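pasting input
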Amino acid sequence: MKLAEKKDTKTHILDVAERHFAIYGFAGTTLRGIIKEADVNVAAVAYHFGSKEDLYSAVIERFAKPVVEEQLSRLRKEIVKRNVKLTNILTAFYEPPIALIKSMGKRGATLSLFLGRCQTEQEPIYSMIDKHFAPCRDQFLLAMRQVLPGLSKKDYHWNFEFMLSLIVCFLTRQQVISKRYTANENWQVDDVVSRLVGFCTAGMQDSK
Amino acid sequence: MKLAEKKDTKTHILDVAERHFAIYGFAGTTLRGIIKEADVNVAAVAYHFGSKEDLYSAVIERFAKPVVEEQLSRLRKEIVKRNVKLTNILTAFYEPPIALIKSMGKRGATLSLFLGRCQTEQEPIYSMIDKHFAPCRDQFLLAMRQVLPGLSKKDYHWNFEFMLSLIVCFLTRQQVISKRYTANENWQVDDVVSRLVGFCTAGMQDSK
DNA sequence: GTATGATTCAATCAATTGATTGAATTTTTG
DNA sequence: CAAAAATTCAATCAATTGATTGAATCATAC
């Protein structure tokens, strides 16, 4: 950090912590690993955030909030329309996180991992995560009921879980896959979204 | 452990380690947590397995091997047929792990978690995992080429990843979901397999 | 300028971590 | 039974963990 010097310490810690939590998980991340890379004092974490747990919470807060808000905003615009379509609901769900991650370049890549990894964290992390995503999940479940009438409650839930798992799959595997099979790590938002929407639409509607 | 006394120490450690790795991940698991629950000496781990890493390897070995072997065996029986169908390939992939887990009762539930969680482990764990599943993955990729001609290499890979993600989703979320929405945690192998096969077949074939 | 509050720092805490040692014990072998 | 091998044990190691303290430094307001 030479020019544009002295990014605010709190933000700096947050940035590094985000990457560490994404890569190593909550248990695998050490405060010392973070503060060493961020080049700050250990006490700074306690001062600005409190505990390791609080730090994790701050990381989630910063990144999940804008995604969920955008998803819900997009969803609201869809469900007021006369005849909502499943593809539009799914696009409203998939595009915000994908677009955000794409726009963030390298940081986006670690956020991908974070999003995938945080789904398998234990308590108390799990509740922390769920708190942020539960309202969004419920809204989309309701919307699916509109566009896919006649399914059982169980069907809705599994459809939603599958929908979620596809994006988590993309987010966590994208780097691995493109490294394994291609020289080119580039991907386009529209390609990915339409791939996800396509697979999921078919799965939900045409599943015999 | 009162009757049927004295399960072999090595197996005993393996059982407890399996559950701990499943729940807490590699980093979150402590040898002391394991040996305390298994009621054995710390040195027993070193004696029977070596390091913590070696122990993890032993856990994978024991559980992944029979699954992969059964998957490949089922696959071989399918691809010799005159006209292979996608549904049959998918069933060959999905049924073995699902059936195994179901047959194992409570231990199966933790194995579910393990299978899901191990997918997001870091090196050197990741390579350990990949080593066991890579041959299987390659075989199924080849088979998909037979039943879904005309797709790009990229398409095959993402289809395979999505196929994988659906079962990982089921394995890791099943307990959470059924706890959230129903009183009944029971599920039938055939129901689950046909749900997975149905969703995935549609996603692969009818994706516009 | 100086006082007040915000921030950073080095030093240290007790607890836990994976791992190892060598003796004690059990089991197997001849 | 006795020798040998396999297994278990308590004790301990150095390293790392999250967290805290009180002094030092910085920024801001008056």
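fyi The radius of gyration of chain B is 19 Å.
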